[in-house]
Write a structure and sequence with these properties.
The chain has 452 residues and is of the alpha/beta class. The protein is 24% helix and 28% strand. Helix 1 runs parallel beside helix 7 and helix 2 packs parallel to helix 5.
Length: 452
């Protein structure tokens, strides 16, 4: 059986590895338009700030390893057409420009996503750069060396991380975001305000609630950014990080998709075509808090979906258990971690959503550096099930989001979290962990524990 994989980043690599393990007799052909594989785009900001020495350090797989295992790996080959009825592909060699055709028995599409480029006059300026792929990151880092004043367009995770990295590398930074608060898709305003205050304290020029309306190249070789607030900012270059969109044009009209183009897959990563699977940033995930399909492009989703695509390529063996879209970010000395629904999103559902905010030291105050932790816990008033949580602290609270994620996954309630067995040591926490205390606050808000 011939398996073709289109795209060789996180999802594609996970799928290939699993096929080699589970179906070693398969013929595996991979088409990748880049000249490299496995670049983790989060390394871009880490390289700018100096944590990662070279961009290539963030590549965790080598093409030669797959070739040695019998994979027909074709780099710098772009699939330009899929005919799902004929099980055929049209591919262009990007070096020779020659065209070729190929067929498949099973097709795994892991084409990923693209940076959403906003419709802004002048966005085509060479001083306006992107940062998603390895080539884009390389160009961005090369340009950064000779520039000092940097504007970052977009205040999601990528934009905030870039702003931090540029400050750490000695640049002057403007962060322009079109919403009232940063990270609005992930956190409540109380946490966003802490993030914003941290960035401002470190020197970021933060402009929120403003659209970048125009980029103008100036005579003195700079870039003028005009905003919807009527202000102008002169910088040396700008980086656009205004979200991402699924890269699925090859299958448009051939498999079922969401309105945004994300490919709809079943729990086994199969599309509406029985011989085509999809995984990663081009596909939806099953979002457990709402029991629905959702577009949530994360590397953690990509590797799990890719593995499942490899396992299930010939038969449906292992189901996805879904996701809570658990994420985390380090912003200078603050750790932010989230899982599940925000209160704003929860209120758009049929849930009777409520929330509590807990604030207190993460461990006894007689211990040094007993940093404050803030926990926002979202739950359903009717069922008392936990719907989401967000945390921020100078203490590393990242793994606490994983605990809450596991509870959401299994239908956990505020009553269960309030009394959840968690270790105690003054080195790590209080006799009741801060997650226990947040849930106890929710139980109190509901007038006590639910009778069992």
């Amino acid at each position: 059986m011939k398996v073709v994989v289109i795209g060789c980043t996180q999802a594609g690599i996970a799928a290939i590895r699993q096929i080699l393990k589970d179906y070693p007799q398969s013929q595996v052909t991979v088409y990748e338009r880049q000249n490299s594989i496995s670049y983790l785009s989060c390394a871009t900001y880490l390289h700018i700030e100096g944590t990662v020495k070279t961009l290539s350090d963030a590549m965790y797989a080598e093409p030669e390893d797959f070739v040695r295992q019998g994979v027909n790996l074709k780099l710098k080959h772009d699939v330009i057409q899929i005919d799902h009825q004929k099980h055929s592909l049209v591919i262009q060699d990007l070096e020779t420009r020659e065209m070729e055709t190929a067929t498949y028995d099973k097709l795994i599409v892991t084409t990923g996503s693209l940076t959403a480029i906003p419709t802004i006059s002048g966005v085509e300026s060479p001083k306006v750069l992107l940062c998603k792929t390895y080539d884009q990151a390389r160009d961005l880092c090369a340009n950064t060396i000779d520039e000092h004043r940097i504007a970052v367009i977009g205040g999601g995770y990528v934009g905030v991380e870039l702003a931090e990295s540029y400050i750490k590398s000695g640049h002057e930074v403007w962060l322009i975001h079109n919403q009232p608060n940063l990270l609005e898709k992930y956190v409540e305003p109380i946490i966003a305000k802490t993030v914003e205050a941290t960035l401002i304290k470190k020197g970021v020029h933060l402009i929120t609630g403003a659209h970048a309306n125009e980029f103008v190249d100036t005579k003195d070789d700079r870039l003028l950014i005009k905003t919807s607030q009527g202000d102008s900012y002169q910088v040396d270059m700008a980086v656009v990080s205004a979200g991402i969109i699924p890269q699925t044009d090859l299958l448009r009209g051939q498999v079922k998709m969401q309105a945004n183009g994300a490919i709809i897959v079943d729990p086994y990563m199969h599309t509406s075509d029985p011989d085509i699977l999809a995984a990663g940033d081009d596909a939806v995930v099953h979002f457990n808090p709402t029991d629905s399909c959702r577009y949530s492009p994360l590397a953690s989703h990509a590797v799990r979906q890719g593995m499942l695509a490899g396992i299930n390529v010939f038969e449906r063996k292992v189901r996805s258990i879904g996701t809570q879209a658990t994420t985390g970010i380090q912003i200078f000395d603050q750790t932010v971690a989230t899982t599940g629904l925000t209160l704003k999103d929860a209120k758009t559902t049929t849930y009777n959503a409520r929330s509590v905010v807990y604030e207190g030291p993460y461990r006894p105050e007689f211990m040094p550096d007993a940093f404050k932790v803030t926990v926002v816990l979202i739950y359903d008033h009717n069922s008392r099930k936990i719907l989401g949580a967000q945390l921020i602290s100078q203490h590393d609270v990242a793994q606490s989001a994983n605990i809450v994620s596991s509870l959401i996954q299994n239908g956990g309630t505020i009553d269960q979290l309030a009394l959840l067995d968690m270790l105690f040591s003054p080195n790590f926490n209080n006799p009741f962990d801060y997650l226990n205390l947040a849930a106890q606050k929710a139980v109190a808000q509901e007038k006590g524990f639910l009778n069992s």
